């Protein structure tokens, strides 16, 4: 069984729609800890991360907003994630996806210290491959994968500790990529399993192919799960909806395959905006997906009565 370390990341500054800062409380209310305990895991909730005092950082791109706040979150979450990894599996409860600027930096630093390869599976509608210099929206939740890849254009962020090679990154469920992101990704060896690939090949073969690479390299695997990986018809509580996402069954299959691999060492839960939810529906689904990732089988799922 796994020692699960819950870390709250009430980050709201990476985009412009308020509400993601309520995500950690929503996951706790939806019973994340209880779900993990029921599966036989131990749980430690380290509370919510608090960033240090803000700096005075600026950048040349006038579109970028909340730069000092995002840099402060990046430093704090990198430290919190790296500190948790020797003791268990950190589950970072977000918060918008800019939190991954910090969490992926933290897992990469830990992997480098262990002299092991770090892998990332990015379950998201978006590639999040802008840089601070290239973003036109100024929303820094669209930048973590470019940062993790070691791209230039991130001044004045701290240098990424151990850039992750493209062949160690798998984007899964992608269906919205800007031209600048596409141009930046083309020279890389990132595996892009967009929805076209998944429609043609199914979920299992592409995912197992990437997991085989992780296993062969004896790598550590970070999973970053964005609510908008899911189809908005089942997960409405996100400010960046893109039609055509993963169905309930597809999402649970991904989680069960990840569990069966035994390779996952850290997890982000991002972009849940409880203000946009319907009676906690999306939060409960995300908790249910974590349950599948941590060992719940499809035949263990209780029947629900609506009578």
Which architecture would the CATH scheme give at its second level?
A: 3-Layer(aba) Sandwich
Structural class by SSE content: alpha/beta
What's the overall geometry?
globular
Unreliable runs, pLDDT <50, ≥5 residues?
none
N-to-C span: 36 Å
Q: What's the CATH class, please?
A: Alpha Beta
Output the helix-strand order: EHHEHEHEHEHEHHEHEH
Average pLDDT rating: 95
Let me know the number of strands: 8
Strand content: 15-25%
* Biggest β-sheet strands, sense, barrel: 8 strands, parallel
Q: Could you give me the name of the CATH homologous superfamily?
A: Ureohydrolase domain
Number of domains: 1
Helical region count? 10
Radius of gyration: 18 Å
Strand order of the largest sheet: 2-1-3-8-7-4-5-6
Percent of residues in helices: 25-40%
Tell me the CATH topology: Arginase, Chain A
């Amino acid at each position: 069984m796994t020692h699960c370390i819950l870390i709250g990341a009430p980050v709201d500054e990476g985009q412009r729609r308020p509400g993601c800062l309520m995500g950690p409380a929503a996951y706790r209310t939806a019973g994340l800890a209880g779900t993990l305990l029921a599966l036989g895991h131990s749980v430690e909730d380290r509370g919510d991360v608090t960033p240090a005092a803000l700096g005075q950082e600026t950048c040349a791109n006038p579109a970028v907003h909340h730069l000092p706040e995002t840099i402060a979150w990046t430093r704090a979450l990198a430290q919190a994630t790296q500190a948790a990894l020797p003791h268990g599996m950190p589950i970072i409860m977000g918060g918008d996806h800019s939190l991954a600027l910090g969490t992926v930096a933290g897992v990469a630093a830990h992997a480098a210290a262990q002299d092991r390869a770090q892998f990332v599976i990015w379950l998201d509608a978006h590639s999040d491959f802008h840089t601070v210099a290239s973003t036109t929206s100024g929303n820094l939740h669209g930048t973590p994968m470019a940062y993790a890849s070691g791209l230039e254009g991130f001044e004045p962020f701290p240098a990424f500790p151990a850039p992750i090679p493209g062949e160690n990154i798998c984007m899964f469920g992608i269906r919205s990529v800007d031209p600048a992101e596409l141009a930046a990704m083309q020279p890389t060896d990132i595996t892009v399993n967009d929805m076209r690939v998944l429609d043609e090949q199914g979920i299992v073969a592409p995912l197992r192919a990437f997991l085989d690479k992780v296993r062969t390299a004896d790598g550590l695997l970070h999973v970053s799960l964005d609510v908008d990986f899911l189809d908005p018809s089942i997960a409405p509580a996100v400010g960046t909806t893109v039609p055509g996402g993963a169905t309930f069954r597809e999402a649970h299959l991904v989680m069960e395959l990840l569990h069966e691999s035994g390779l996952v060492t850290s997890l982000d839960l991002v972009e849940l905006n409880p203000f946009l939810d319907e009676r906690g529906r999306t939060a409960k689904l995300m908790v249910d997906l974590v349950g599948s990732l941590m060992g719940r089988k499809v035949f263990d799922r209780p029947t629900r009565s609506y009578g």
